Amino acid sequence: MVAIITGASGAIGSATVRAFAARGTDVVLAAIESERETLEALAAEARTKGVKALVVPTDVTKRVDIDRLVAMTIAQFGTVDVLANIAGIGSSPSLSDETDENIERVFAINLLGCARTMHAVLPMMIAKKKGAIVNIGSVAGEAAVMGVYSGSKFGLRGLNDSVRREVRMYGIGVTLIEPGFVRSPMNAAMGDGLPSPDIVADAIVRAVDRPRRRIIVPKRYNVPVFFVKLFPGLVDLVFGDARIQDRLNRDAREARAAETRI
What we know:
There is one protein chain. This protein is α/β, with parallel strands linked by helices. It has a single domain, classed as Rossmann fold (3-Layer(aba) Sandwich). The protein contains 9 helices and 7 strands, in the order E-H-E-H-E-H-E-H-E-H-E-H-E-H-H-H. A 7-stranded parallel beta sheet has the order 3-2-1-4-5-6-7, with helices on both faces. Strand 1, helix 1 and strand 2 form a beta-alpha-beta unit. Helix 1 (11-22) crosses helix 6, helix 3 packs parallel to helix 4 (100-128) and helix 4 (100-128) packs parallel to helix 5 (147-167). The protein is globular, with a radius of gyration of 18 Å.
């Protein structure tokens, strides 16, 4: 089995590389060129598990990079069995605080990157009537409280559902995994008490064997997601409160202020 992993250098991505390698799956590691050193180290680690590992620096905002990623995977391994779309970036909780450049970049990576990588691998998966695609969404794609990040993950949820239904007849599984807060640089301000990214990696590996419509991790986030769907008006009242909005945006605004001072 061969798995392409985008965003392979990040916290969830690197955990996923290790999880696939541990189960004997050959891995193709994709992330931007500046992460090559990290990718090469991860690939070397994966090879100690007895699997093959290929590093292909890839910017998922560029279709030419995505096509090269898939072409090099096929040239090396002859197939693509799994696509794990993990590449993603965050945003300010406030749309008003964003630059136009960052609005475009969030959607280009979080949504268009997934659409294009799926578009690139599906012809092969459809031809062999087999394959698994796993997209990393977010609970912020269920509860809209994180600005354009939530918008990108809401969009990914719709795209995931549509593609899953489109390719079901070909035996291709398309699963959306929606993590809550896990330990990663994106959530550094929340400290080290968050769950390990390994819980997301394990869910990705399980979804290959048993595709699901949606998997929320950790499971405790199922409860707030349920209430968000059941009581949207109450959520509007709570998150429309000025004090809640101030708390949501405080860390992001303080970080930007610090960058400006530097």
